[in-house]
Write a structure and sequence with these properties.
Elements: H1 3-7, E1 17-21, H2 26-37, E2 41-46, H3 49-59, E3 63-66, H4 72-80, E4 86-91, H5 108-127, E5 131-142, H6 153-172, E6 177-183, H7 189-195, H8 199-209, H9 218-230, E7 238-241
Parallel strand pairs: 1-2, 1-4, 2-3, 4-5, 5-6, 6-7
């Protein structure tokens, strides 16, 4: 083998299959793009059928499925009906809730908290027979709730719970690997929807104050996700990606 052949071998994800749940936009879509660029196959899942179809036209996925991941029976059927084993599953579906206590809906809050944990458990249980040994289950969390703040009551509880849940799943599902990405602010369509006309001010503030002097984007998070898929020594851990946001004073 020549030096040129060593430098230009097949991509690390060549011939691997990655299921991306939440693949129609943002971090999920960018992860699917990077998997395809590495030579991998993708199965794209999203709740909005129209957006999913549009994203699929760009990436030529192995398959697509439009449903709400919180529908456990549909999720189970989805994994049972996959045409073969998969290498990795990434879940980016879901949105954080920033509701001050005075505005908190006592019926909605426990449902939102419980649903996020239930979805994580459901994906783990429903996929475990389809994911190969050494493959990855990869979930998304956040870093914003690590500091107390107005409106962070539910988010902070989830921020604490998800790393513990992922660490335990890594033991119970071994040799399947289970990991969590904890992101700070990421410049996605979801962030734009949450912030509305405050988005540009938020971007400017982060560019000025973050140690990296720029805003974290979906491509940054996707690159971390692909690295975790590749590196078979990684399991049971939480990986922060926030551009140094946690280092800043309030």
């Amino acid at each position: 083998m020549t030096a040129g052949e060593l430098n230009h071998g097949p991509p690390d994800l060549a011939d691997q299959t990655v299921v991306v749940i939440g693949a129609s936009a943002g971090i999920g879509l960018e992860t699917a793009r990077q998997v395809r660029a590495e030579g991998g196959r993708v199965v794209m899942v999203g709740r909005n059928a129209e957006r999913l179809e549009q994203a699929a036209r760009e990436l030529d996925p192995l398959a697509t499925a439009a449903f709400d991941v919180a529908d456990t029976e549909r999720l189970r059927r989805f994994f049972q009906e996959l045409p073969g084993p998969v290498d990795h599953v990434m879940v980016t579906a879901g949105a954080p809730s920033y509701t001050p206590l005075d505005d908190l809906d006592l019926a909605a809050a426990p449902r939102e908290f419980g649903e996020r944990l239930a979805v994580t458990l459901a994906v783990a249980l429903c996929s475990r027979d389809q994911v190969r040994a050494g493959g990855t289950l990869l979930f998304m969390g956040g870093t914003g709730g690590r500091r107390p703040g107005v409106g962070l009551t539910v988010v902070s509880a989830l921020t604490a719970a998800l790393p513990a849940l992922v660490a335990n799943l890594a033991l119970e599902l071994a040799p399947i690997r289970v990991n969590l990405i904890a992101a700070g602010f990421v410049d996605t369509p979801l962030s734009a929807a949450l912030l509305g006309d405050r988005l540009e001010a938020r971007r400017a503030d982060l560019r000025a104050r973050l140690p990296i002097r720029r805003v974290v984007g979906p491509a940054d998070v996707a690159a971390l996700a692909v690295h975790i898929m590749r590196n078979e020594a990684l399991t049971g851990a939480t990986y922060d990606i926030d551009g140094g946001q946690q280092l800043l004073p309030h």
